[in-house]
Design brief:
Helix content is about 45%, strand content about 20%. It starts with 6 loop residues before the first strand and ends with a helix. The strands form 2 sheets. Strands 3-4-5-2-1-6 form a 6-stranded mixed β-sheet. The chain has a 6-stranded mixed β-sheet with strand order 8-9-7-10-11-12, sandwiched between helices. The relative contact order is 0.10. It is flat, with a radius of gyration of 30 Å. It is of the alpha/beta class and about 425 residues long. A hairpin with a 5-residue loop joins strand 3 and strand 4.
Length: about 425
């Protein structure tokens, strides 16, 4: 005998005080709850009803709008109700206390409404992740990415690949079941080879996206690197428009990585100040240099800094690095084309640096089509899928039996199934 679920309730809007508060209820007791707390009784399904809400002692909780949405056509797939109240703390507490006084009703755990939507088939796992990303979105780019994911664009691509794998499995299993018919293996191997070849091409294209989806979702990494006393910390503070890093004339002041979160070119950017790059005798500074090199290697964009206090040579700079000559107020010097000359103390040249960073970030996001991968979990699953599809294609080309080929196709379909 199936165990009946609890009914859950929670504040579904921002914390008080606010003009409006939304309290959501979902579960098997919702119909009885609505009949009790709505002064006018159970409202018609999916129609906003204005009136008073009453507690168990018939005291007024508040006056507002209420909506009753029977399952399965609701967000969670269960009977659901939403109360639109005034957003004061006393009103919200009274409403939640009243709901929890009903038998079998409790406060929802974080994300439990969306979890129930997933468990009841209203959302797949990728779409549920899209809900979380949409709530956390700080930029329009993150919002657009999350809306695409919530709208099912990623799931449709993943399910399309899975359908192709299931078709290949059906053809292979038909050749196994009808192995005594001479033309069965020949009739299946050709279409299977075409399906697997097309899938390898599409998966490789999806994977070759420079991790744009993950970068938009998690933020772009920009590292400021260079020798000690080049003014890296001052540049970070100027870009952050606050005193985020300690500035000193003493070489080696910055030892650990100092990171600030900014919005540049409509994207989230993590800007990191790193330890000065030099041969260090001090063990702590040496660890800082190691971390600086590690961060520089992992960064999406590097800002190489030099100044009159350091060598002005950029011999170790990469072709895509932004080259900055700082402290131009002390000594401008001769600089090659492509080097941005600025002064962190006066702000001269910083508009050029900010524009250059914006241009580079925009270039990173516009070089690829809409991403089909937004999380490391997606990439790992697709990578495993691609491995098994390639293995199946290789086994087919080398004349292995349908049983061997079918096993890799099955494993590939399993990886895609786990993804959604």
């Amino acid at each position: 005998m199936a165990v009946q679920r609890d009914t859950i309730c929670a504040l579904a809007s921002g914390p008080p005080p606010s003009a409006i508060a939304i309290v959501r209820v979902s579960g098997p007791s919702v119909r009885d709850i609505c009949a009790s707390i709505f002064e006018a009784g159970l409202p018609p399904p999916r129609r906003s009803v204005f009136g008073r809400f009453l507690d168990v002692s018939r005291e007024t909780i508040d006056e507002g709008l209420g909506v009753y949405m029977p399952g399965p056509h609701s967000y969670t797939g269960e009977d659901t109700a939403e109360l639109y109240l005034h957003g004061g703390a006393a009103v919200i507490d009274h409403a939640l206390d009243t709901l929890c006084a009903f038998q079998g009703v409790r406060l929802a755990e974080p994300g439990e409404f969306t979890r129930r939507a997933f468990e009841n088939g209203r959302l797949d796992l990728v779409e549920a992740e899209g809900v979380a990303d949409l709530i956390d979105a700080e930029t329009r780019a993150q919002k657009a990415l999350a809306l695409d994911q919530l709208g099912g664009s990623l799931s449709q691509a993943y399910e399309g690949w899975r359908a192709g794998l299931l078709e290949a499995m059906a053809l292979l299993e038909a050749s196994i079941d009808f192995a005594d018919e001479e033309d069965a293996p020949d009739e299946s191997s050709g279409p299977v080879a075409v399906l697997l070849g097309r899938m390898v091409s599409e998966l490789e294209t999806a994977m070759d996206d420079d991790a744009v989806g993950e970068r938009i979702r998690d933020g772009f990494r920009v590292a400021i690197i260079g020798p000690p006393n080049a003014g890296k910390s001052s540049i970070l503070n100027r870009l952050a428009r606050r005193e985020a890093a300690i500035v000193s004339d003493i070489p080696g002041t910055t030892r650990d990585i100092v990171e600030v979160r900014l919005k540049i070119a409509g994207q989230v950017v993590w800007l990191a100040d790193t330890a000065g790059l030099r041969e260090a005798d001090d063990a702590i500074e040496a660890e800082g240099v190691r971390r600086a090199l590690e961060r520089a290697k992992a960064a999406d964009l590097r800002i190489q800094v030099r100044s009159p206090d350091t060598s002005s040579s950029f011999e170790n700079a990469g072709a895509d690095d932004i080259r900055v000559y700082n402290k131009a107020d002390l000594e401008r010097g001769e600089q090659s084309a492509g080097t941005i000359v600025l002064s962190a103390s006066t702000g001269v040249g910083f508009s050029v640096l900010e524009d250059t960073i914006s241009e580079r970030i925009t270039k990173l996001t516009s070089s690829k089509s809409a991403p089909l991968i937004t999380r490391r979990r997606h990439r790992d699953a697709l990578s495993n899928t691609l491995f098994h599809v390639k293995q199946a294609r290789s086994n087919l080309e080398h004349g292995f039996g349908a049983e061997i080929v079918s096993e890799d196709v099955r494993l590939a379909a399993q990886k895609l199934g786990a993804l959604v």
